[in-house]
Design a protein that fits this description.
By secondary structure, this protein is α+β, with helices and mostly antiparallel strands. Helix content is about 15%, strand content about 25%. One of its GO terms (cellular component) is membrane.
């Protein structure tokens, strides 16, 4: 018995020792998903060099640190704005802004000037980059293969691959000699590009992380292309073929790009920042100018920007490469202003202008310029104005300036969009010319009797025409259907001018008449922005002004504190709380005009109502024109109202 017990004890000890020294199942055996050649390498005991470990995907089971209550850069830890929010950012040339959202245009609306043909994955030829992108926008599928008109069914097409083990990104780029397989260089490789690469691999939320690895490390055990290209993506693309490709170079001992795709469709409950599309990113990835989310929502709600990104006044952070690139990204053009030029000098050089590959960015810029050229507004004809005398924009050497409650006389042709509405030979209201055959005024200034009204352009003295004055009869008056007379809600109207005989024009060409632009976004100008008002209303002495007066006012936030529930949606305030500048009776319907960073003037408000003209605590109330953009567009048509989003 004792011998049997000893034998059992020895057997137990041997079994226990075997379990202690047995190799781990997970450490030495190949991964079940590894490709065959990788499995063979493991079985042959070939030592694989250690690679950078990609940042892990934030899964629902991942525990992240508790989100702080506030952040130095973010306005909110959940931003519902995205690239499609055209109230704070521009739409792309193949999109248009409707009800605050960018929507896809039909491909036939794309410009045809200065474009290059594109070959699609469907072996069809497309006229331009814009046209193929419009198709992709509408179908949510990438069609572009490469620039060129050689689109044979059996011809080579652009393709992207991401190695499942190493994350290495490879491209096949067609060219006139057939094409070449290439790697992606380290230069400008960021999350925006990694997102696009992963979207191309059917991962709708893009990348979890991007990285780089030494070429020689991989080349030691993999057969790799010897050259790489730089890739510059903005994040809206659905394939790397749609990005800017340039600088094909020998890799030698350089670094090449890798990506790990995002695997989770929903963000964890304790996510540091939840993108509008549901993706989870870290706080370090927000407000840096790079589209980490894949829908740009990590850059749309920012108080400050980091890593040399540039903050637009609408709270959008844009990448530093977008500064002074001849393409407006901030709504007010601040990224192309002199301020941006001084900042850009201290940053990295812009993208190269010459490359063996055609750049889609060049065509996008050309498309924008073509669209912008279709509507000219907001820039007065300076040759008709005495610039030396108006350059100070209402500043006086006699102390505080008052406006139509004591404003500054304008020069005879200075305010070229100002009009006077004459009803039965009496002028009680003003208005603003927005181009074509259209004038905007206040609803309380008009009634549905077009024959009773005439519109006077380039009028300086209220009672007498000048050489440049033009008087035009009215064809129709469109009062906002929800206008409420006793509360001044929706106090806006469109005046349609009669056309000249045998022509589509309503005005004879006149250098003293210019159109003011119509804003499409209520975010274009922020509180405390300095704007101007004009009209023939009462002066400080209570008399009607004999000449057109104007002065500066500031936009005032939270006007409900002054007027309570009388202040309705679609209204705004301007002036100052002390009452030193105000619009008064007789100015109704006249323009409140704000100027952006590039000198373009927008009709920001229409003089509507107020209490105790020019008294402290009662700022003037205006109809906010941008609030009614869709209604204006509905009646006037796209070309008449929008310079960038048509």
């Amino acid at each position: 018995m004792r011998s049997a017990k000893v034998s059992l004890s020895l057997l137990f000890l041997l079994f226990f020792h075997f379990e202690m020294v047995k190799p781990s199942d997970k450490s030495d055996r190949p991964h079940v998903d590894d490709p065959p050649h990788m499995t063979e390498q493991v079985e042959q005991k070939i030592q694989i060099p250690s690679l950078p470990i990609p940042s892990p995907t934030l899964l629902a089971t991942t525990k992240t640190p508790k989100t702080p209550e506030s952040d130095e850069y973010l306005e909110s830890f959940t931003c519902r704005k995205s690239r499609a929010s055209c109230d704070v950012a521009f739409c792309l040339p193949w999109e248009r802004c409707i009800d605050g959202k960018c929507t896809c245009k039909p491909p036939y609306l794309c410009p045809v000037e200065n474009v290059n043909p594109v070959c699609g994955h469907d072996s069809r030829n497309y006229r331009s980059y814009c046209q193929v992108m419009a198709l992709s926008c509408r179908t949510r599928k990438s069609y572009m293969s490469h620039f060129g008109d050689n689109c044979d069914v059996n011809g080579p097409k652009f393709r992207t691959s991401i190695d499942e083990v190493t994350g290495l990104v490879k491209l096949f780029v067609p060219d006139s000699n057939g094409g070449e397989e290439l790697l992606v260089c380290k230069k400008l490789w960021n999350m925006a590009a990694a997102n696009v690469a992963c979207k191309e691999q059917k991962k709708p939320l893009g990348a979890a992380s991007k990285d780089v690895v030494e070429y020689q490390t991989l080349a030691a055990f993999m057969q790799l292309p010897r050259r790489c290209v730089s890739i510059y993506c903005q994040g809206y693309e659905m394939s790397l073929a749609e990005c800017v490709i340039y600088d094909k170079v020998e890799v030698h001992r350089g670094l090449v790009a890798t990506a790990t795709c995002y695997q989770e469709s929903t963000a964890p409950t304790d996510c540091p920042f939840t993108c509008a599309n549901g993706k989870c990113v870290t706080l370090n990835q927000t407000c840096n100018g790079i589209d980490d989310c894949g829908d740009r929502s990590d850059e749309m709600c920012c108080k400050k920007c980091k890593k040399n990104a540039f903050r637009c006044k609408t709270g959008v952070c844009i990448y530093k490469e977008a500064l002074v690139d001849d393409q407006i990204d901030c709504l007010d053009g601040e990224d192309e202003s002199n301020k941006a030029k001084s900042k850009q000098k201290s940053l990295s050089p812009p993208l190269p202008k010459n490359s063996e590959y055609i750049s889609p960015m060049n065509e996008t810029k050309a498309d924008r310029k073509t669209l912008e050229a279709k509507l000219f507004c907001g820039i007065p004809n300076a040759t008709t104005v005495d610039d030396d005398e108006v350059v100070h924009r209402g500043k006086s050497t006699h102390g505080r300036v008052k406006r139509v409650v004591g404003g500054v006389p304008a020069k005879p042709t200075q305010i070229q969009w100002q009009v006077a509405l004459e009803e039965n030979k009496r002028i009680d209201c003003g208005g603003a010319y927005i181009g074509g055959c259209w004038v905007i005024t206040a609803a309380h200034c008009v009634r549905p009797s077009p024959r009773a009204f005439r519109v006077k352009f380039s009028l300086w003295k209220k009672s007498r025409a000048q050489d440049t004055t033009d008087i035009v009869p009215v064809e129709d008056i469109l009062i906002h259907p929800n206008y409420v007379a006793n509360t001044y809600e929706n106090d806006i109207a469109l005046v349609k001018l009669q056309k000249l005989p045998f022509t589509e024009k309503c005005l004879v060409d006149n250098p003293a008449i210019s159109a003011v632009c119509v804003p499409w976004s209520t975010q274009l100008f922020q509180p405390n922005h300095t704007c101007s008002i004009s009209g023939w209303g009462r002066t400080a002495e209570g008399r009607s002004a004999s000449v057109l007066l104007w002065a500066n006012v500031s936009l005032i936030d939270d006007c409900g504190r002054f007027y309570g529930n009388r202040f309705k949606p679609g209204m705004m305030c301007a002036g100052d709380v002390e009452g030193s500048v105000d619009s008064c009776q007789g100015d109704s319907g006249g323009p409140l005009v704000c100027v952006d960073e590039l000198g373009v003037s927008y009709l920001w408000g229409i003089v509507s109502w107020g209490e105790r003209c020019g008294q402290p605590g009662f700022p003037g109330v205006y109809t906010q024109v941008a609030h009614y953009f869709e209604w204006i567009r509905l009646h006037t048509g796209w070309p008449a109202v929008t310079k960038f989003n048509s």
